[in-house]
Amino acid sequence: RVVVIGDASVGKTSILNQLIDNNFHEHEQSTVGANYQLYVEEIDGIKIEIQIWDTAGQEKFRSLGPIYYRNSNGAIIMFDMTSRKSFEDLDEWIIHLYLRKNKSTNSNSNKSSNGTVIFIVGNKADLTENFQVSMNEVNEWAKQMDYKVMFTSAKTGKNVTQLFHNLSVELLKSRTHNYQKSKNDS
Ligand code: GTP
Ligand code: MG
User: Is ligand 1 within 6 A of the CB of residue 83?
Assistant: First the structure.
């Protein structure tokens, strides 16, 4: 399970429309609550099935978040390259994610709090003229925090399948790692 989180209108729903239907709507409706999509990819003969939860960024739905963070193995934390505010809000989303996850973890918490695969995604990469954050700055910030970063465009489709492929690879890696770890622990 993977959650897609971030401020309202950064393009979370649009990225999934592009991934699943090769579709882009200039006037996508703001998400209410959350929706999920199933994404399947085969890597090295291993079938990976990801339940992707597209959550609502609007403030009034924030309290629902933890329901979807529970038991998630990965998170795409998205911002809009043309909105400095959405970039600055990343910290808050990350804190939100970690706090809630830890609160909701139970006895088999082994992999859930530490093993979360996080991708920071700067969307609307097609609108270069209107960037309010430079790719450099984003890369520097993410490097310090040790997060993976990608720049996408739901409009042109740039890096959309690449993002989910990279995510699948990381999820597969973390799963193998956790499997090895639990074998060694026992
Ligand atoms: P909430 O559901 O409210 O949290 O918003 P969201 O993050 O799902 O954003 P959504 O996908 O609804 O996109 C918001 C607006 O931005 C829509 O009008 C989209 O057409 C537009 N948009 C999304 N992605 C891109 C992109 O990559 N490039 C451009 N130019 N516009 C985009
Ligand atoms: Mg949405």
Answer: no
Q: Cβ(58) to ligand 1 under 6 A?
A: yes
- Identify the pLDDT of residue 184: 74
Instruction: Report the separation in Å between the CA atom of 149 and the middle of ligand 2, taken as the mean of its atom positions.
Output: 20
pLDDT tens across 18-29, in order? Answer: 999 999 999 999
Handedness of CA 27, 88, 63, 20 (dihedral sign): positive
Q: Is 127 or 102 the better-scoring residue by pLDDT? A: 127
